[in-house]
């Protein structure tokens, strides 16, 4: 469910016709719907209403835009961050430091110190080495450090290999069989407040089964840790719920996820924590683009060349991801075409032999489900500008991230004197 619909033959974001945004901001541009973000935040929260005071931390990596974070902060969400930069954004959006969880396999000492000083709520430690470093830094600064140990449960999430994180050979967390001894050593460090465990097995999960298997393993581990005398008060179940990218996709409903979690975690007696990203932001954004021209291709399949490219939306090039493509003012006719961007490599292809609305030069079109892992993964490859972002709220809209022009990027580069 989202708020990008046809109204009188023209695609709108809530009450704003997309051509209005294109005229005002130019293309390509990401457009987010506040009502959709809020709805998803509410649906996810409702799905967990059977739990006692769950902690909701939006995975900032999915969409770190400051205004988007502000919308979610106002919905009572905290943040899951994986860098000092993401932490700064969450704090700038008004999220309480205590509601921020710091994940990530390569936190630097500098980032740990900054997070300790900011008073963030929890470190999700990914190795014994990291835990020891955190303990030393917390001791030196004499600051509290709440921490949980991220477990790698060795479960196949059944998702794309590049976004699977819970198999034994993935870099994340500590192997579940080694967890009790590592937890024991970390819990013995006086400056660490070890309070539980965390896991996250991957993203865009289209089945609840691997999650249930992983949660079951964590439940057993919690019992083992308690049997060893540890006080376990928090378990972070990560993110990962998939969303619908195309017709026929059938990701789990948040309500079914919530019911499964309630069933599997019954009696754990911990505060459960969640790190949803895509399920909140994915369908709340689109990438608005303009067709530059259509040129004939081999086998009678034309290339629709749009002004968005792999540097603006990397997912198709990186993961062969599907994003629905629709004309902003469809005339009811269809064609089969390849949709490509202007970047000079064949990987800059959004779709091959796709049945799409007929489009011609200068027509506007959208890629759907671009609100998560869209703008945040953009680059300036081919010396293109950095794509701007717009937030719509009912009948109004605002630029929430400006386009960074190629000239601005060029101005930040310097030729050393000895080369002039
Ligand atoms: N927690 C942790 C520790 C994570 O690593 C991630 C995502 C999340 C939560 C949020 O997962 P979500 O609920 O969004 O599935 N760029 C890729 C996705 C990478 C996901 C990385 N980790 C893509 O475009 O599909």
Automatic annotation (TrEMBL):
It comes from the Bacteria. GO terms for molecular function: diaminopimelate decarboxylase activity; pyridoxal phosphate binding. Residues 36-281 form the Orn/DAP/Arg decarboxylase 2 N-terminal domain. It holds the Pfam family Orn_DAP_Arg_deC. The active site is at 344 (proton donor). Belongs to the Orn/Lys/Arg decarboxylase class-II family. LysA subfamily. Homodimer. Specifically catalyzes the decarboxylation of meso-diaminopimelate (meso-DAP) to L-lysine. This is Diaminopimelate decarboxylase. It comes from Sphingorhabdus lacus. The lineage of its organism: Bacteria, Pseudomonadati, Pseudomonadota, Alphaproteobacteria, Sphingomonadales. The gene is lysA.
């Amino acid at each position: 469910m989202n708020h990008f619909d046809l109204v009188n033959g023209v695609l709108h974001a809530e009450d704003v016709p997309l051509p209005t945004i294109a005229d005002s901001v130019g293309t390509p541009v990401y457009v987010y719907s506040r009502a959709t973000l809020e709805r998803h935040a509410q649906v996810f929260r409702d799905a967990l209403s059977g739990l006692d005071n769950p902690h909701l931390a939006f995975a900032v990596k999915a969409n770190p835009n400051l205004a988007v974070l502000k919308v979610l902060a106002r919905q009572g969400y905290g943040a899951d961050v994986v860098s000092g930069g993401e932490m700064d954004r969450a704090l700038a959006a008004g999220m309480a430091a205590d509601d921020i969880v710091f994940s990530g396999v390569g936190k630097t000492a500098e980032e740990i110190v900054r997070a300790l000083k900011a008073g963030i709520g929890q470190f999700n430690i990914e190795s014994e080495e990291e835990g020891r470093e955190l303990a030393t830094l917390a001791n030196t600064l004499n600051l509290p450090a709440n921490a949980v140990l991220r477990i790698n449960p060795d479960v196949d999430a059944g998702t794309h290999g590049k976004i699977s994180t819970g198999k034994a050979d993935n870099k994340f967390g500590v192997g579940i069989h080694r967890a009790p001894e590592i937890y024991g050593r970390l819990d013995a460090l006086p400056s660490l407040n070890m309070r539980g465990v965390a896991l996250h097995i991957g993203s865009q999960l289209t089945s609840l089964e691997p999650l249930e298997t992983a949660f079951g393993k964590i439940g057993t581990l919690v019992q083992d840790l308690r049997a060893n005398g540890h006080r376990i008060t928090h378990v972070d179940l990560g993110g990962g719920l998939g969303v619908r990218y195309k017709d026929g996709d059938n990701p789990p409903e948040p309500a079914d996820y919530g019911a499964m979690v309630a069933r599997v975690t019954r009696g754990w007696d911990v505060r459960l924590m969640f790190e949803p990203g895509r399920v909140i932001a994915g369908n709340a954004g689109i990438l608005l683009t303009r067709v530059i021209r259509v040129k004939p291709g081999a086998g009678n399949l034309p290339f629709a060349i749009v002004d968005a490219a792999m540097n603006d939306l990397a997912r198709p090039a990186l993961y062969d991801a599907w994003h629905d493509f629709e004309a902003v003012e469809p005339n009811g006719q269809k064609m089969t075409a390849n949709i490509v961007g202007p970047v000079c490599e064949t990987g800059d292809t959004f779709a091959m032999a796709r049945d799409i609305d007929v489009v011609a030069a200068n027509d506007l079109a959208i890629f759907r489900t671009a609100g998560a892992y869209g703008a945040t993964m953009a680059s300036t490859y081919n010396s293109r500008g950095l794509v701007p972002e717009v937030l719509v709220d009912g009948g109004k809209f605002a630029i929430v991230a400006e386009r960074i022009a190629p000239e601005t990027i060029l101005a930040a580069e310097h030729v050393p004197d000895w080369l002039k």
